[in-house]
Amino acid sequence: MERELYGREAIFGNDGLAARLTGLTPHGSARVAYEHRDDPPVAVLTGGRGMGKTAALKQLRHLYREITPVALVDCEAVVPPADPGPGWTPVTGALPELATQLTAKVHAARPVQFPRLSLGLVAVASISWTREDETRAQRDLQSLGPVLATVDTRGDAATGWVTKVLTKLAASAFDSVVPLAGMVAEATIETVLEETFSRFQRRSADWYGSYPHAGGNGRIGLRQLAVDFERGGDLRRRAEDHLVLALVADLVRAYGGLARGARRGRPVLLLDNAHTLLGRQLVEPVLRQRASGVRDQIALFASSRARDHEGLSHAVRRRLPEVAHGSHWARGSEVTSGILAVELTALGPAHVQAAFDRHDPVGRTPAGLARGVHRLTGGRPLGVALLAQAAGEALVPGTPRPGSSQPGSLVPGALLDRAVELREDRAPVRVADELLARLLPGQQLDVLSVLAAAHGEDSARLLATARLRGRSLDGDVALQVRDVLRAQDWPVGPEYFVADPLLRALLLHRLRFQDDDHPYYAVWRAVHETLRTAYAPGGRCPSVPHRLHQELVLGRTRDCVTHLRERFTDGDVTAWLGSLRFIASAPYPRPPGYAGPDPRRAVALGREAAGSLPDGETGLAGLGERAVELQLQLRRLLHAVWLLSDPLALPDEEVVDKMAHELRQLSGRHPTGNSVLWDAATHWPQDIRAWRPLSMPPGSPGAGAPGTGGSGRRRGDGGSDA
Fold first, then answer.
1. What whole-number distance in Å separates Cα of residue 301 and Cα of residue 321?
2. Is 495:456 a contact under the CB 8 Å cutoff?
3. pLDDT in the model for residue 160
C-alpha cells in the first residue's frame, strides 16, 4: 500500500491533472474530457528530495494499474545485470521493463503487444553472437524473454532460436563489405519472424523502413540499427532513440484500429528521476517526435529533482495549485516547450495536521505539535510523514519510548530520536537516520555534519581545513560539498552554509550525538570551539555576534548576556535586537531520550533556584544594583528568545508572555529606542504565535541578516562572515 498523500489534490482530483491527461479519473475510472486531446504535454513534477515526486508517481501507478496500461521506471535504479552483453545499455535495460509492465492485464482490454520493440531489442542484442559462443546468445535471449513473451506467449519460444540463427549465419556467403553485426542481426530477425511472429505481426518489421539508410525496407533498417548500435557514440544514440519510438509505436498501434470503446483513456508512462541521462534519453525522442507533428496519445509523467535542469529550458512552468483545474499549457517553437513542468509545493499546516490525525485519530498529541513539525520540515512531505508516524507510535499504549510517557513531553526534537517501523520485513529505524539517508543518499554524512555548523562559505572552508584535513585529495572539501548540495537541489546560503532548516537540523543532530559520549559531546564541542576561536578577536574572521552565537551553542550564556547589557544603551536599538535574535538562534539539542521540561523555560520565567549558579556563570560579580537588575532581565530575555526560536521545541504561551513583558520593561529603560522595543514586545509574540521567524525590524514582513538591522546590512561591532 502506497503511503497516504496530502496536498496533492491538483494531481489526483477527479478533474485534476492526471485525470485530464489520461482521460480517466484516478478514483472510479470514469471518463474525463481530455484537456489536450490531440497534443498532450509531458508532465514533469519538479522538487527537491523529500518533496513527494516518487510518492506521486507511485500513487499514479497504484490508482491506474487496473484500468489502463501503466509502467514506472526509476531512471536512477536501472543497473546492468551480472553479465551484460554488448547489447545492454541503460536504455535497452529500461525499455523491456517498461514494456513488461505495460503488458499487465487491465479491465476490458487485451494485453498490449510489443512486436516492433521486440525486433529492435533482439537486433541489438545479437551484435556479439558467434557460433563459438552460443551461451552468450542464450543468455541475451533469456533476458529478453518477458518482452518477447508479449508477442508469443509460449514460454519456450526462444529456446531453439539460437541454433537456427547461427546455422543460418554459417550458411550465408561471407561478404567483407557487410559488417558482421549487421549479418547476425539480419539472420536473427529472419529467424524470429519465421518462428514467432504471426502473419499479421510480421508487418511490424516494416516500421523500421524509416530508419536512416533503410530505403523503406524494414529488414535493412533493423540491420542498420544493429550496426549503428555497435559503432557507439552518436550512432548508438540514434539507434536507442529509434528503440524508444518503437515502444511508442507499439502503444499507438494498440490504441488504433480497434472497435470504438475497446480501450479507454491513455496508457501511462511514469519515469522517476528523469533529470538523469537515461531519463533524457527516454523523454527526448518523444518530445522531438511530438514537436514534428507526430502524435502518440500517451500520458507521460516524469520527475526531476533539478528544477532548473537544462532539459526544462523552454518548459511551461506552473506551481502545483495552478494546475488543479487547468494547466494553461500551449506548445511553443522549441522542442522542450512540449513539457509542462509542475513544481510540487510544500504541505500547508492543515495537511500536516491531517497527517497527524491519521496516526493519532483520538488526538493525544500535544496541541501545536503538528504546527511545530510543519515549522521544522517546511512542509516537506517526507519529513512530515515520518515525524507524524513517530508521534502516533509514541502514544500507542505499550510502545516503548524514551523518558516520560506524557503526551506533553513530545516536541519535534524528541521525535527525531524515535524509531518507526516502515515495513514489516525491516527492523525499525530512527527517524533522524532515515531522513538523512533519504534526503542525502550516498553522501559522507560525517563531513556534511561538520560543515552544517558553518554559517557561510568562508567558515565552512575554515572548518574543512581545521576538522576535515585529509578527507580529499582533489581540492577544497567545502567547495566540493557545496557543489554536492547544489547538485541535489539543496540551497547553500550566506547565513547558513546548509541553508535548508530541516537538513541543517538533522545534520547538527547527527554531529551532536554521533560519537555517543554524553555528556561530553567531544566532536560537537571541537567543531564549535573551532568556530568560536575563528570569530574571536585576532581570529580568521572576527565577529562578535558570531562568537557569542558559538558561546551559546556551547552552553555558555554569561558573555552573551554581558554583551547585550553593555550594548543596550547604544543608539541603534534595531541592531541590538538583531544581535539578540541572531545569538539566540544557536542550536540547543535535547539530550537523547530526555522528556522533561526544557531547562531554558525555568530561566526565561525567572524560576531558577536561588543561588543555583555562581556569579561567574551569570556575570553578576562586581555589578551595581541597576546593572544586576538589567543583567538578570536580559538573561531571562535571552533564554526566552532562545527557546521560542528553537525549531526542535514548541512555543510556550507563558514564555511568550514573559518575553513580551521583558521587552516592555526594557522599553522604559532605553533612552532613545523605547518605540522599537515596544514594537518588538507587540510583534514578536505575534510572530511566534504565527509560527514565523522573529521579524526585523519588529513587524516588518521580511527578516534581516544575522546581527543586522532592518536593511540586512551588517552593523555594529562584528566583522564579516561568509
1. 17
2. yes
3. 54
Q: Could you write out the DSSP letters of every residue in 44-111?
A: EEE--TTSSHHHHHHHHHHHHTTTS-EEEEETTS----SS--TT--HHHHHHHHHHHHHTS-BTTBPP
Cβ–Cβ < 8 Å for 25, 251: no
* 583 contact partners, CB below 8 Å, separation of at least 6: 545, 548, 549, 552, 560, 564, 638
Query: What's the rounded Cα separation, in Å, for the pair 595 and 610?
Result: 24
Tell me the three cell numbers of residue 348. 500547508
Cα 185 → chain centroid:
43
CA distances from 682 to 500, 664, 669, 679, 694 (A): 28, 9, 17, 5, 11
Counting Cα atoms < 13 Å in the Cβ hemisphere of 71 gives 20
Please, are residues 460 and 482 in contact by the beta-carbon 8 Å criterion? yes
pTM, two decimal places: 0.88
Model confidence at 87: pLDDT above 80: yes
Yes or no: say if 420 and 387 are a contact pair by the CB < 8 Å rule: no
Query: Could you tell me if 205 and 250 are in contact, meaning their C-beta atoms sit under 8 angstroms apart?
Result: no
- Tell me: the pLDDT tens digits for 450-491? 999 999 999 999 999 999 987 765 668 999 999 999 988 899
3-state secondary structure of 43: strand
C-beta separation of 187 from 169 below 8 A = yes
Bridging pattern class, strands 268-272 and 70-74: parallel
C-alpha cell at 229: 548500435
* Spatial distance between the Cα atoms of 459 and 456, rounded to a whole number of angstroms: 6
Tally of CA atoms within 13 A in the half-sphere of 532 that contains its CB: 19
Which of 164-173, 182-191, 517-526, 527-536 is predicted least confidently?
A: 164-173
Q: How far apart are CA 112 and CA 109, in angstroms?
A: 9
Q: Kindly write down the DSSP assignment for every residue of 434-458, as one continuous string.
A: HHHHHHSTTS-HHHHHHHTT-SSHH
What is the DSSP code string of 286-342?
A: HHHHHHTT-----EEEEEES-TT-GGGTT-EEEEGGGGSS-------SSGGGGEEEE
